[in-house]
Predict the structure.
Amino acid sequence: MTTPDPERRRRRPARDDDAPRPTRPARKASGSRRQGAASAMRAAAQQLSELLGRPPESVTSLRPTDEGWEAVVEVVELERIPETTSVMGSYRVELDASGELISYERTRRYSRGMIDRSGR
């Protein structure tokens, strides 16, 4: 894999000084910057795990919000044999722009082997 030549970067066409320039949205004070999706997923899973004392099974949803990120994290709440009868919990986790957990809420409890039905 080759590194792109810095001299070959695309250049923007010159603008007329009288033309209005697009403005960027103002950044929040203290220089906070929204972290990326992968970092937000890891932060949601790790911080929820610390609070619940159980490891996360998966992050099933992640979306940006005005304040930061919202994720849905699945956690095994009660392990059973066979595994399909283990009790799972879905947690909605809210993170601020820097990835700190603001709130969490269990939104669903179900058996691992249960399949969601369409139209629900």
Summary: The chain is about 15% helix and 35% strand. Helices lie at 37-52.
